[in-house]
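Troubleshooting entry. The earlier prediction with flavin-adenine dinucleotide gave an output that would not parse, so I re-checked the input for stray whitespace and re-submitted. Clean input:
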Amino acid sequence: METSKKRESSISSFDRSKSYWNEAIPQTSPFPTLAENLETDVVIIGGGLAGVSTAYCLSKAGKKIVLVEDGNIGSGETGHTTAHLVTALDDRFTHFVKLFGKEDTRLILQSHQAAIDFVEKTVKEEKIDCQFSRLPGFLFRHPSDDKEVLTDEFDAATEAGLELKILDRIPGMMNNQEACLEFPDQAQFHPLLYLHGLCKAIEKQGGKIYTNTHAAIINADGIITEDGWIIKADDIVVATNSPVNDLVTIHLKQNAFRTYVIAGPVEKDSVPHALWWDTGDHDVNKDFPPYHYVRLFPFNDESDLLISGGEDHPTGDLPKEDHNEATRFQRLESWTREHFPLKEITYHWSGQVMEPVDSLAFIGKNPMDKENVYIITGDSGTGMTHCTIGGLLICDLIMGIDNPWERIYRPSRMTFSSSPVFFRSLMRGIKGLLTATPGDDRVKELEAVNPGEGKICQIDGHRCGVYNDPHGAMNIVSAKCTHLGAALHWNDAEKSWDCPWHGSRFAPDGQVINGPANRNLPLYTLSDEIPLERKGE
Ligand SMILES: Cc1cc2nc3c(=O)[nH]c(=O)nc-3n(C[C@H](O)[C@H](O)[C@H](O)COP(=O)(O)OP(=O)(O)OC[C@H]3O[C@@H](n4cnc5c(N)ncnc54)[C@H](O)[C@@H]3O)c2cc1C
């Protein structure tokens, strides 16, 4: 596997959209960058909730662990979440009972309940001040959905062992006289304070954490970082959200979706603390109806922060009526203002979730790999609990302890994507490649990219991604994903190059942000010479 070198970026101000949660944690990483070779029992790649939970469980169980993260702790999706901890599974009990049967659905439910209980217990034991609280959740019908959706869900969830209620109004929401389901004992917390609390405990338990350390090569012996340091390990856990060590197998079993969040103050105590979810807009997408999810967080003496998310779409693939990702924020704002007394919007951000075709995470031994390589992926909208289940289950597998969840979460289970989303994304990635025409006028192409904008251009026969940074410097990268070569899409809201095939994402200067790609995009330099030259790395 080719190594990806860290770039001296001309876009030093570039960062992903930052969530509200980032304000509570140190802006520079409190952890060192790896600068030596190491040997350990387990190396964990990824410092999000999945990796950190695994590191916590294993170090508590007595294993020597090293965790490496190529950004800061929580700088991936965990820093962009809304952190509802739910047993109200967002892909619905009706779906789980149909697909897995009553008994396995019970097991799935128990694993999510156990995950929330584990977080609650750990917060107490480790004295993590992350505002963990239990609260009810309300599921209500989107007007475009079937009339029976709630009663069907009530029956299926009851069959799986949940005790829930049907209410004839939705507590806390404006203009809504509709019925809803009340799910008891859901929870919420501040995700980054929880994560940093776990890291402190890991260090106390003797674990080692390194940030700004990119695992460039990952195999059954351990990892080699981009700076050439080697970590040898008996067991390897890849918790990079989308597995960067897998070329195809797992990526045929899940689709990447972007999801959007806005947040702003509401008058204190004007809305009760709870979680709300609708059943998704079936007029927008029947197969994956984008749904809305809302919670509060204590903000200051006068206000609570209302955090509203949703408007998901397959990464790199927006319906025709949306020109760019910004439209999704506008739709989210109108929906939220219709239902809650939001004063203004003070934060907005977006992130990505991996949706497994059968809605269950992939946790366990990496298929077609050596026995000691494990993955955690397929988080979906219930990633907080899925990642926690990941930590608990991988710990048992490595410790040789039988766990009844092993069978249901097994990554090698038979499932592959045949959904329309999968085929649309596939076609989009191919279409971009086929529309390449050599020999366009490079001056005209470049002049059309305004400062702060990114565009796909044809330059000297190359299909390039051109980003004109706000100071007028042109960054020209190859517009082919380094994972499997699909045509990339410019995401204007996040200022990133996004891949419609499997959700890989790159910064404007080509630095890789999201897997499965694990290498930067080749950077081009424009000289007076034709053709365009690839910059040496
Ligand atoms: C907007 C949004 C809202 C959400 N809301 C909810 C919710 O309310 N409830 C819920 O349950 N779930 C929710 N989710 C899902 C949940 O946030 C995620 O499932 C979860 O945070 C994923 O954690 P992770 O550890 O798998 O991934 P990440 O947090 O992305 O961590 C993976 C880490 O791996 C690092 N990495 C990648 N490659 C390498 C490499 N080669 N070397 C070193 N490090 C590497 C990355 O930098 C990253 O930090 C939401 C997600 C989003 C985006």
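This one parsed fine. The two ends are 16 Å apart (CA to CA).
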